[in-house]
Amino acid sequence: MSKERVYLYDSTLRDGGQTQGVDFSVPDKIAIARALDRLGIDYIEGGWPGANPTDDAFFGAPPKLSRARLSAFGMTRRPGRSAANDPGLMAVLNSKAKVVCLVGKTWDFHVTTALNCTLDENLEMIADSLKLAGERAEEVMFDCEHFFDGYKANPGFALACARTAYESGARWIVLCDTNGGTLPHEVEAIVAEVAKHVPGDRLGIHCHNDTENAVANSLAAVRAGARQIQGTLNGLGERCGNANLVSLIPSLTLKMGFDVGIGEDGLRNLRDVSRMLDERLNRQPNRQQAYVGESAFAHKGGLHVSAIEKDPRSYEHVDPSLIGNARHVVVSDQAGRSNILARFREIGLEIDPKDPKVNSLVETVKEREFEGYAYDGAEASFELLARRMLDHVPQFFTLQRFRVMDERRFNARGQLVTEAEATVSVAIGNAVRYEVALGNGPVNAFDNALRKALVGDYPGVEHLQLVDYKVRILTPNDGTRAITRVMIESEDADGERWTTVGVSPNILNASVDALSDSITYKLMRAGVRPAA
Ligand SMILES: CC(=O)SCCNC(=O)CCNC(=O)[C@H](O)C(C)(C)COP(=O)(O)OP(=O)(O)OC[C@H]1O[C@@H](n2cnc3c(N)ncnc32)[C@H](O)[C@@H]1OP(=O)(O)O
Ligand SMILES: CC(=O)C(=O)O
């Protein structure tokens, strides 16, 4: 039996562009639209023609899409003028987009307060605008703004707006929880009522996430009969965001048995598409993002790992590979032998499970975590620790000594200047290198001096970049004597990333340990031979 279809409407480029801190360029929009098209999304809302030069440029030369339909967003005509004489509406209709989505008021309070017109005129604005849009575009839809608040306040008027849109030719009547305050049981009940007046296969849902329920509300609407879902990649959107399509898609397909048109290949692409958006926005991916996050199938508790070793279904709600993700075992003070052994397999370290060194490594990890190390976030440092205890890590260099001078002064123009100078003495094979370097702070100066000392023997260190540097005070009651933990994330020229950790009452010393681990890890992974 064929599966029932739910249509996906992506609003990343429109509502997602209303996210604070997000400012798409035209190339961003084009790249995201192409990725959504490859994923198999039915509709891509490109923006609002006439609202800003970026959206005009995008619609002026839209990307060629092979599967998705490009939609132009806009609003109904303003009160007191005809649709054909409304420049805002005409800019949307002149965009030549084949699909047009118009938003209109459906909450009586908004009509009288924001539009300052009568309820009847609002119904005429909806009818006139949609009819004109129907003459210009192949497909027209209507976003019922504030539908759920409107329905609670005046169900007759909210329904009249939805019916007017339906009778004026809208293919989809999309019920919007614009303020995001409606809960799933309310959405399900209200959509079921609306489906008595507008057929369910003409109803869509557009939810905001102000109570963290946008995904649940969208699923509730589908349960009540709606067959189009509007959402965004990674839940971007105004205020707290929109329904996250990256979470909705697997739930609709894997758990509710719907066909959303993207097939198994699309589903396996989901994680990559989610990452692509983070890359474009220069954002760290959310580790805990449902289905696609790095931690979504990461197992930390010893009991969990012991059971997933026997059967992954014991602690996984779906097979991670279905959405392009992977199982991952982390090591920490919550770990038992199973975590350590599973991690060894992941990093390709062979060891007899009965080897007493396994137990001593578990103990060492627990002791070091008690001192402040955090190996669940610093897997490169864990690998070095494990290999040092069980196997072998080449001694690429030995940091014999370093000194850092940190200066803060006012220059001749009276401007505040901070500068640091580091000297390092490093043994490499039989040679000792002594280098001096400047930096804008002590860690930067040390990093520059160490790399200067190493680069002759190990040219690869030049391409190593620090992409994140986090300091955490572990004993805050000790004031400036507190123990600090430094976590450093590094990246090489191929884009591979790894994290290392250092702990010390001296913040510079903690940074030096994390940095040294980072360089050693990179050289070891690259199979570099230690200089003689
Ligand atoms: C629920 C949503 O998220 S809808 C999408 C919201 N997105 C955006 O607003 C982003 C793009 N918007 C814009 O660039 C601008 O707001 C524009 C170009 C659309 C309009 O700009 P301006 O003409 O300067 O108007 P401004 O934004 O100040 O106010 C909106 C006007 O539209 C009216 N309006 C609001 N909704 C509707 C509607 N559905 N139909 C007709 N008029 C409407 C408001 O009453 C207000 O009219 P007023 O100026 O007479 O008070
Ligand atoms: C249309 C829209 O973005 C909303 O009502 O939330």
From TrEMBL:
Top-level division of the source organism's lineage: Bacteria
Catalytic activity: pyruvate + acetyl-CoA + H2O = (3R)-citramalate + CoA + H(+)
GO molecular function: (R)-citramalate synthase activity; 2-isopropylmalate synthase activity
Single Gene Ontology BP annotation: isoleucine biosynthetic process
Domain Pyruvate carboxyltransferase: 6-268
Keywords tagged on the record: Amino-acid biosynthesis, Branched-chain amino acid biosynthesis, Isoleucine biosynthesis, Transferase
Pathway(s) per entry: Amino-acid biosynthesis; L-isoleucine biosynthesis; 2-oxobutanoate from pyruvate: step 1/3
Gene3D superfamilies given in the database record: 1.10.238.260, 3.30.160.270, Aldolase class I
Annotated EC: 2.3.3.21
Enzyme class, spelled out: transferase
Matches recorded under InterPro entries: 2-isopropylmalate_synth_dimer (IPR013709), AIPM/Hcit_synth_CS (IPR002034), Aldolase_TIM (IPR013785), Citramal_synthase (IPR005675), LeuA/HCS_post-cat (IPR054691), LeuA_allosteric_dom_sf (IPR036230), PYR_CT (IPR000891)
Keyword Transferase annotated: yes
Key word Amino-acid biosynthesis present: yes
Similarity remark: Belongs to the alpha-IPM synthase/homocitrate synthase family.
NCBIfam families for the chain: citramal_synth
Protein name as it appears in the record: Citramalate synthase
Organism listed in the record: Oceanibaculum pacificum
